[in-house]
Design brief:
The chain is 71% helix and 4% strand. By secondary structure, the chain is mainly alpha-helical.
Length: 408
């Protein structure tokens, strides 16, 4: 009896020591990740895009590895190569779309890049068709079910990981605010869901993730809304956060300036009638972005966690604890990004639907002129634009004559 108690005490002590060591490692790597994120954030948009691309590829690798049977893969041609080829062709399509949208005025005037910019979607489609033909050609008797399962699993992963991560990159290009805020909301929600859950959590929320509680879910929602509004209050006072990208060389120290989106500027609102006796005023001023933050924080609290529940179900399907061991103490990249991609996709859709100012861009006008006008009409347009600039006093008569001589 005494021996059993001693063994039990020893086992419990070992478990506590293991948990303590894991907590220390987890804390250290959390600090490292926060520091690295802050450094890349200050370095500029291109570094944040590179970070998202790296996380996207690593997440794709971890998820795809779940359904791979190594013994079968060695017997089948092109299996693993085709998986990565489909990733490359999808990245080419999505990232190319974004670069062309934001930098048309650069790409469309370059003789080398013009064909890739104007025929981007056709090139992307043909790249995919090549992969499709390779897949069909590689089908082998006795392995059809496994190969088609792999093909379907790859496409689902491309949709849920790569496509959603692509819109996170668009958020960065629209302004760091639309990347930093959604990312922070998910992290804040995750922290407070844990704190509220262990403090007063009693009612189980969902069977697939038994540790989640209704009390933790609701408490995290309220906390995320409050902290989200506080965070947005500070972020919108930094031009680097709210300005869209215009040059990949920009960073936190380049004194970036722009005309802010109207949601970042204070507006006057009427106080509801029933509140006037309490606040003693009929109007108040506030930046409209704070109302949008409430909606985004609500999504991060009530909808984005289902990305984590989905990941939990996937892990139980394949009987694994974590997606990998890339981050010591945290598991795989997917274990940290399961909610982020869903939140990033929502943020892009919300921004594009309710906040973005869809005005005419130089790139759009240039694309129309190149694709819709003949050479003679393009020259006529250039000549008319030069005359307009001369009449407005922006260029001299000598400059106008010189340009007309070159065109003639």
């Amino acid at each position: 009896m005494v021996a059993c108690r001693a063994i039990l005490t020893f086992v419990k002590r070992k478990e506590r020591e293991k948990k303590r060591q894991n907590f220390i490692v987890r804390t250290i790597w959390t600090i490292v990740m926060i520091g690295g994120f802050a450094a890349l954030l200050a370095a500029g948009h291109i570094w944040m895009i590179a970070l998202v691309a790296a996380l996207q590829i690593l997440t794709y690798k971890e998820v795809i590895a779940l359904a791979h049977d190594k013994s079968r893969q060695r017997k089948l041609p092109y299996g693993k190569v085709l998986t990565w080829y489909l990733l490359a062709s999808t990245v080419y399509l999505l990232y190319g779309e974004s670069v062309i949208y934001y930098f048309r005025e650069v790409l469309l005037v370059d003789a080398l890049l013009l064909p890739f910019a104007t025929h981007h979607r056709f090139i992307s489609y043909m790249l995919y068709i090549i992969g499709f033909v390779i897949f069909v050609s590689s089908l082998e008797k006795g392995h059809y079910q496994y190969q088609f399962t792999q093909f379907a699993f790859t496409h689902v992963t491309l949709l849920l990981v790569v496509v959603q991560a692509h819109f996170v990159m668009n958020n960065i290009m629209s302004g760091m605010f639309w990347f930093v805020l959604p990312t922070s909301l998910v992290i804040i929600n995750d922290i407070f869901a844990y704190l509220c859950g262990i403090t007063f959590g009693r009612t189980p929320l969902i069977k697939i993730s038994p540790k989640k509680t209704v009390e933790g879910f609701v408490g995290a929602w309220i906390s995320t809304v409050i902290f989200g509004m506080l965070l947005s209050y500070f972020l919108i006072r930094w031009q680097y956060m709210i300005c869209p990208i215009s040059d990949f060389s920009e960073n936190a120290f380049s004194n970036l300036r722009c005309d802010p989106n109207p949601v970042f500027l204070k507006r006057s609102f009427n106080v509801p009638r029933f509140l006037i006796p309490l606040v003693y005023q009929t109007t108040y001023e506030i930046e409209p972005i704070h109302y949008h933050v409430i909606i985004m924080a609500t999504f991060a609290s009530l909808m984005a966690p289902f990305g984590g529940f989905f990941a939990s179900g996937l892990k139980r399907t394949f009987n694994i604890k974590d997606f990998g061991d890339t981050i010591p103490g945290h598991g795989g990249i997917t274990d940290r990004m399961d909610c982020q991609f869903l939140m990033g996709f929502f943020s892009y859709m919300y921004y594009d639907s309710f906040i973005a100012s869809h005005h005419l861009r130089v790139g759009s006008v240039l694309e129309t002129a190149i694709q819709s006008l003949t050479l003679a009409e393009q020259l006529q347009l250039v000549s008319a634009l030069h005359k307009y600039l001369y009449n407005q006093g922006y260029i001299t008569e000598d400059t106008l004559e010189c340009l007309e001589m070159v065109m003639s």
